[in-house]
Amino acid sequence: MEKMIAPSPMPKEKMYARKRPKQKRNRTAGRLITEIFAVAVTIVLFGIPLYFIFVNAAKDAKESSLLNMSWPSTFQLIENIQLVFAAENGMILRAFFNSAVITIASIILLIFFGAMAGYVLHRKRTKSTPVINFLILVGLIIPPAVVPTIWVLESIGLFKTMPGIILVEVALHLPFTVMLYRSFMATIPKQLDEAALIDGCGKLRLFFSIILPLLKPVSATVIVLTAVGVYNDFVNPLYFFPGADNATLQLTLYNFMSLYSTQWNLLFANILIISLPPLIMFIFFNRRIVAGMTAGSIK
Amino acid sequence: MRNIKSNPYTYFFLLPAGAIYLIFFILPTILSFFFSMTWWTLTDWKFIGLENFKVFLSEPSMNIGFRNTIIYAIVTSGLKVILGLLLGVFLSMRLRSVGFIRSMVFFPALLSTIAVGIAFSTLMHPSQGMINTALSFIGFVGPDWLGDTKIALLSVALVDVWKGVGIATVIFIAGIMSIPQEYHEALSIDGGNAWHRFRNITLPLSRPAMNTVIILSFIGGLRTFDLIWAMTKGGPGFSTDIIASIIYKQYQAGFYGISTAGNVILFIVVAALAFPLYLYLNRKEVDL
């Protein structure tokens, strides 16, 4: 495909070029101009908003209230970050801890429970398979019922608790995770299971020491999708994890929005702090993340 | 030997996932149908029939949410499909800047919606914001993006597209890359040009990718809440209220019954639009 669109040095192309050198040169120039144009548009549309956040996080309150993107006259990024960390008795540290625990716990539960479910749902087809398929499809499409979920959490004593929000996040991410694992199971031959069983491998060992390690590519995808989804989730903590001590990073940022309506520099510093973990991950695992999120969407 | 005889694939493996899913998703969903017909305080309820639905559908401040939800979903998914396809085609070419552009376009997908919402609220500030400052340089008077009731919803939708077009793009790239080389060779032998290539090869053969983008962004658009809440909180007036923001407002006000009725209405809207769309687009794929 690449070859087709780019004028590649194929013999035919060379002949063509020799006959009409001028046009060939024009086409190369045209391509260069298109490319420069595309890069410029990308920088304007996607680079400037990110740059805007960065410079304003480094200004003082008065300068940042102008909302422009001139370079700060006094560069005080570190001071602003310190102020954000000190705000509300170090609320953001607590939020960092909570967000990390919720994200990591959700990832671990999703990998184990999702892989187990995907494994058995691929290998075992019974009369209840269509019902299970339907329930998975419902979970992919229908949004969660908010207040009834709170009621359920309240009745089992998990409302406003860490386990409560983790279980809700896991429940909401399960349909997709299970679907990913189940479709990947098709690439693991059933003869492998049979061979292991004949060698005297138990049911549990078959799954945990043979199948689960083979599911690693999906697990990587699940880690990427869950990390991005749960870390950036605002709605579910808003509903199911309220309370003064129950901050998550997104909730803290949201509360800072009204708190710091006159101190944009601190608000942008907060945005910068929150965006740092995804940015670092993206720099190191660019391809892995893009591949994971694409695989995630194309089942 | 016993292990070989008995079936190794027991539903025991399904138990943890199944239990969590049933308790924390399916059960509340079923309960919502009952509680949407009650006057509800979480501890106590009184059955009042379809009263909540009547309130939801007759109050102008609430039924505006329907129109907005559907407009928002169509605008965001439509733009993501068109721009994602164009970017996907462009970034599938052999250019030096592909890696850079793809990374820049994709990165917002990893950012928090609240952060993006805050940043763009300031960029869209009517007098000071960067967007209108830039427009005034080239002689335009920019609108009050988020303050004008006529365009506020579209402004938020554009920010949604900014954040989400990267995912659509990489899905299209994956789809276009998977088109076998032979088709292109055949086309070049037959003497087709770039338009023929797009029209007769790229477009039809990236159809699965397009279906994925349509479904994902359309359902995402119908369910959206956080970006609108971070940017306008449904305002000015009720002009950007969507069903999900009304659910939250009613919940905050303590009207749990009405909030749950809103939730049921959102189920119905999503199901009525997304299920047929899903089945239509996937009609050739048998196994879910």
From TrEMBL, chain B:
Source organism of this protein record: Terribacillus saccharophilus
PROSITE patterns: ABC_TM1
Family matches, as InterPro entries: ABC_transporter_permease (IPR051393), MetI-like (IPR000515), MetI-like_sf (IPR035906)
Ranges of residues in domain ABC transmembrane type-1: 66-277
BP term (GO), one: transmembrane transport
UniProt-recorded name of the protein: ABC transporter
Cellular component aspect of the GO annotation: plasma membrane
Matches recorded under SUPFAM superfamilies: MetI-like
Pfam families: BPD_transp_1 (PF00528)
Record flagged with keyword Transmembrane helix: yes
Main location: membrane
Keyword Hydrolase among UniProt keywords: no
Transmembrane feature ranges: 12-35, 70-93, 105-123, 153-179, 213-232, 253-281
Family recorded in the similarity comment: Belongs to the binding-protein-dependent transport system permease family.
Membrane topology: Multi-pass membrane protein
